[in-house]
Amino acid sequence: MIAGRGALLLVAAGGAAVLAFVLAWNLAISALQSRLDQQLLLTARAVETEISRFRALPDVAGEDARIAAALSDPAAHEAASRYLKRVADHSGATELYLLNDQGVTIAASNWAMPGSFIGQSYAFRPYFRDAMATGKGQFYAIGVTTGLPGYFLSSRITRNGAQGVMVVKVDLRPLQDTWAAAGLAMALADADGVVFLAGRPDWVYRPLRPLSQDSLARLAAQRTYDGVDLAQAAPLLTRGALAAPGIAPGAMRPALARLEGPGWQLLAAAPTAPVVTEAVGWATGAALMSLVLMAVALVVHQRRQLTALRLRQHDELEARVNERTAALATEIEARRQAEIDLRAAQEGLIHSEKMAALGRMSTAIVHEISQPLAAMEATLAAAELSLPPTDRTTAPRLATVRGLIRRMQRTTKHLKSFGRKEPGERSLVDVTSVMASAVELVTPRARAVGVVPELLPANGPLLVWAGPVRMEQVLVNLLLNALDAVEHRADPKIALAAFARDGALCLTVSDNGCGIAAEDLPRLAEPFFTTKATGEGLGLGLSISRTILGEFGGDLGFAAAEGGGTVVQVTMPLASLAAQDLRAAE
């Protein structure tokens, strides 16, 4: 067990060390590359600044009249040389000299010194050929006369029909002296990749990569590096890595940049030993940290095992407590359910008592109203018989009143039927005529409210099995409720519509009144439930209407109308389906 944990610790430490080494190496190499890139940028600007100081000097020096005279008059050569000597001394240029159109030096700043350029032909140099062809030339090479390297800038001069080339030689070796003093591994190579300036002396005149035979032949013909055997020089870069003599592979990391003007290449390198040291340090720290963390984790794990061992003694007691708690919870839930069932039974008893009270009230209404109504009808019948034959106005009025009394008698019978739960007689009824009759009955009330109920025509007759008076009673009740809802509206609207859908009758009464709250919609048909103010209604109209419709196999539904208001929908089976049901029952 202990050996296994030790092996686990070693594996974890090794993994952490490898991961830390890789991360630290990548970060350090990235930082090193950033430093090298910044170093290349600063060095490139320094080189360009040094060259820019002398770039315009050939053109400026060629503007002098003594230069123009020297191109056409040999007698003016000495004066031109003296002038070039003064210009070179003031500008800091190494040498300044004038070539004729054949590439022969006719005036030079070193005309009076040993190794003078006077009379030397430099027609083979690219800076002469480029200047004669394009007007400008530039070239770095070892001087064939002095043996000293320099950067040659040239410009074509045309004066009085004669042509020549003004050349300035610039010594760039102070740059490499600066690099060497600063300990920088910097190198500047030409377009062919041959290093001509370097902070390390052993890098000078070595190619970055192996040179082709064409490049060697061209450099030899131009005498660019006169006296240097480039074919035997070892390349500095091999497969992108610095492999210079005296430097172990991978010991230094190189970076390259190109100068846009002359096409030269800048090489910067830095040792990777600090990077390795830093990565190893991070890896060692990560290994030690992982060992410490794993040791702490093992200690914590052991403490947890000890705690679990102590807690195991209480498991049995906790299990018993949980069993007892579960039993108590079951008992509490059973009692809660019993209370819910008791409350539901009480609400059912209250509802039954309401229905019983409604039945008793209906019976009392029938008993108290039926006899006065019968007496009124008999009195009106006697009055009608006693009218003289010439009275033609009173008899129709008495007949109308008697019809209303008979309607009231039928209504009291319906209340009696509701109270006793007795089904009334049914016959084929055209709903369209019942709707028209109901609208006619509520017309006086509608006029008082200021609305004319809109009766939408139905497509053909809609026949149902029902009691016509009780159907009319249902519609009158719905219309009166709608009139109450729109009574205080500025633009009251009430509409009745009937249509057939899926073998059933759908009859709707809609209004644009104040509407009914969503929580009150399911209770509208309950007895004694009303949304009207106290004393304005008993809450029995919709309950009686639903009871009547239930006897006819129908139902009553409520919904909110779009834009405000209420829609009450009566659904009943059409006569054909109802007739089939009756025949099946017989």
From TrEMBL:
Gene3D superfamilies: 1.10.287.130, 6.10.250.3020, Histidine kinase-like ATPase, C-terminal domain (3.30.565.10), PAS domain (3.30.450.20). The keyword Iron-sulfur does not apply. Keywords: ATP-binding, Cell membrane, Kinase, Membrane, Nucleotide-binding, Transferase, Transmembrane, Transmembrane helix, Two-component regulatory system. GO terms for molecular function: ATP binding. Residues 364-576 form the Histidine kinase domain. It catalyses: ATP + protein L-histidine = ADP + protein N-phospho-L-histidine. It is found in: Cell membrane. It is a multi-pass membrane protein. Pfam families: HATPase_c (PF02518). Transmembrane segments: none annotated. InterPro entries: HATPase_C_sf, HATPase_dom, His_kinase_dom, HisK_dim/P_sf, Sensor-like_sf, Sig_transdc_His_kin-like_C, Sig_transdc_His_kinase_DctB. Its EC number is 2.7.13.3. PANTHER family: C4-DICARBOXYLATE TRANSPORT SENSOR PROTEIN DCTB, SENSOR HISTIDINE KINASE. This is histidine kinase. It comes from Gemmobacter denitrificans.
